[in-house]
Every structure is written in structure tokens, then in C-alpha cells.
Amino acid sequence: MFHVMLVEDQEIVRQGLRMILEQDEQIRVSCEASNGYEAMEKMTAHRVDVIFMDIRMPDMNGIEATRKIKELWPDVPILILTTFNDDGYALEALNEGASGFLLKTSDGKKLIEAVYSVMKGGLVLHDEVTAKVMPKLLKQSKKTAANVEVDLTERERAITKRIGQGKTNKEIAAELYLSIGTIKNHISVILQKTNLRDRTQLAIYAVTHDIS
């Protein structure tokens, strides 16, 4: 069972999202919040596996809430959900550690699939956003990591390469005949070696450094 928190200031939107997500028997909306402050409070009182986060909210917006939540609960994936097809929002959200960026116009199937994807370690981007965001992320990564020389083992390079290809931990584990736990441990070591914050930055690093 995946426990989801909805962070959205409009109650009618939360109700709609709840109805869509709970069509899947493995997904349960365990709590809701109308802004970032409420989300922080709910995190301490409820089990939360995945967060759907609106961007424009009163008191504390989605970008700031994402940053604060990832500082305290780094393993909880956050999916940014908005009506604004704005690559600037997407870029900022991903830089703060979000695991995906979806438009509220996404159909219900895509929202449900997004939950499963991020729980497997995947990165979810709406098709309309990807083409605009990825070039900027790649350019940004080149600036911050161009001079970094990292001594990765053969196994670490194999894992990094597959992360750059967008594969999940489960897929990587199957290809390399390792457990998912072992893959997670390797990724933690790789992040320390590369001085990168999260999987998103590592995926960009793999592409910009032509890891093979």
C-alpha cells in the first residue's frame, strides 16, 4: 500500500485527486494539506510514501515546501503538480529534490503510474515539460561539475550509466543480478563520491560525463 499526501490549496482539486488515485487499490490518500506549513505538520503525524505538491499556495509555496521536506525526509519522493506549463518552475522544483513534474491536465492513469514510478526510484516529467527542462538541467550540470574528477569503480559506473538512461532501481538490479538494497547502497556511495545531492543530479551527471 502506497500512502500519499496531497498538498493543494483548493479542496475541490484535492477531492478530485483523491478519487483518481484511490481507483488503484494499492494507493491510499492518508492525509491532505492546503499549504507547505500544513504539509510539514502532517509529515510528523502520518505515514507518507509519496507527496503530490502544488506550486502556488498561500503561506508556503510548493517550491519552498519541497526544499524543507527534502531536508528532513530526503527519501520521500515529491511530485510537483501544477496547471502552469512553466519550465522555470520545473527546473527549480527538480533542483530542490522533486522526483517529478506533472501538469494537472495529466490523465488519471499517468498520475497513478507516477506513484509507482517514483516508488521504484524513477524520475517523472510531463512530456510538454521535458523538452524544455532537460537542456537547461544539462547546461547547469556542466557548469557545476565540469571540473570534477571522480574515481568510480566498474560496478559504480555501470549503475550510474543506467541511472542516466532513466532506469529504476528494480530494472538496474535485474540487469546487474544484484538486490535492490545493494543498488541503493551503491547509489549512496556514488552520490558521496560525486558530491551530488540526489538521483536527478546523478542522472544528469551520467549524461554530461558520458558514463559508460
User: Taking strands numbered 1, 2, ... along the chain, how are they ordered across the largest sheet?
Assistant: 2-1-3-4-5-6
- What general form does the structure show? globular
Residue windows where pLDDT falls under 50 for at least 5 positions: none
Percent strand equals 5-15%
Main β sheet profile: 6 strands, parallel
Mean pLDDT: 85
Summing up helix and strand content along with how strands pair, one would put the structural category as: alpha/beta
State the end-to-end distance: 36 Å
Radius of gyration: 17 Å
Order of helices and strands: EHEHEHEHEHEHHHHH
Number of helices, where a helix is a run of at least 4 consecutive DSSP H or I residues: 10
Q: What is the number of strand segments?
A: 6
Structural description of this entry:
With 212 residues, the chain is of the alpha/beta class. The protein contains ten helices and six strands; from the N terminus they run βαβαβαβαβαβααααα. Strands 2-1-3-4-5-6 form a six-stranded parallel beta sheet, sandwiched between helices. Helix 7 (154-164) packs across helix 9, helix 7 packs across helix 10 and helix 8 (169-176) crosses helix 9. The model has no long low-confidence stretch (mean pLDDT 85).
